[in-house]
Write a structure and sequence with these properties.
272 residues; alpha/beta; Rossmann fold; 2 domains; six-stranded mixed sheet; six-stranded parallel sheet
Length: 272
């Protein structure tokens, strides 16, 4: 990476709990491609002040994580369709003080549904109703999926998410019908207290045609492992996080990445 200098482009992330994933992904590529730029993760208790700083200091781009994804909307100038459709932002680009917001999570999921040739006629069972679930559900709707059921115990966010996109809601998986595609957008299977949890019952996994787990750490969650063992087509959270970061990189730098560059940057960002 070039020595810090006055012309170096700066991009950042804002999150309640910053990680090194984005920092390692972007800086790996800056170094490999010889881009005079640096990426740094931050948290803040003053979102409005942070956004003012992005404008005032000429910060090129900002990745946005919870709990700022919705709160940042009134602070930007332009909201692209990918963010407006779900009222959730994960990327801000600064063009001479004009801040444009988008959602590359939405874009990544939509792209993966297409690249994995998931049939829009399939019956989908999606577990979760949080911020990421909104992006995933919207991507399914945008891709033309008509038959989707949201499984969520939260009796406020679950029905609201389903109704927003014209889908069904159930509080318990056992109340849902058969499904061809299983999608987990909850912490089940994530490293920590729930790392051994299988997001769906085994018989559902065995009967499904596609298993999609948005959990990125680890990429081989119990659901993904069960899907592979059953011979089911699998989409992993590692694919989502890599692709959304690649879309951010392209917005910040104007450089289109190859699949190989994305893969290697993703592997580097996730290395222990």
């Amino acid at each position: 990476m070039p020595i810090l200098n006055k012309d170096m482009q700066v991009s950042i992330s804002l999150a309640a709990r910053p990680s090194n994933i984005g920092t390692r992904f972007h800086n790996f590529l800056y170094d490999e491609l010889g881009v005079n730029a640096v990426y740094k993760a931050f948290t803040t208790d003053d979102l409005a002040g942070a956004v003012t700083g992005i404008r005032a200091l000429g910060i090129r781009g900002c990745s946005v994580s919870m709990p700022f994804k919705e709160a940042i909307i009134p602070l930007v100038d332009v909201v692209e369709d990918s963010a407006a459709a779900i009222q959730s932002v994960n990327t801000v680009v600064n063009d001479g003080g004009v801040l444009t917001a988008s959602n590359t999570d939405y874009e990544a999921v939509a792209s993966l549904l297409a690249s994995h040739a998931v049939d829009p006629a399939a019956r989908v069972l999606l577990r979760g109703s949080g911020g990421m679930a909104k992006a995933v559900t919207a991507a399914f709707r945008g891709a033309g999926f008509e038959h989707l059921t949201v499984v969520a115990r939260n009796e406020r966010t679950g029905p609201a998410l389903a109704a927003q996109y014209g889908y069904e809601w159930v509080a318990d998986e056992r109340a849902a019908g058969d499904a061809d595609v299983l999608v987990n957008v909850t912490p089940l299977g994530m490293r920590g207290d729930q790392q051994d949890a299988l997001a769906f019952e085994q018989d559902r996994v065995d009967a499904a045609g596609t298993v999609f787990d948005v959990v990125a750490f680890p990429s081989e969650t119990p659901l993904v492992q069960a899907g592979r063992a059953a011979g089911t087509s699998v989409i992993t959270g590692a694919e989502v996080i890599a692709l959304q970061a690649a879309r951010q990189f392209e917005r910040y730098t104007g450089i289109a990445l190859t699949d190989d560059q994305v893969r290697r940057a993703s592997e580097f960002s996730r290395a222990e």
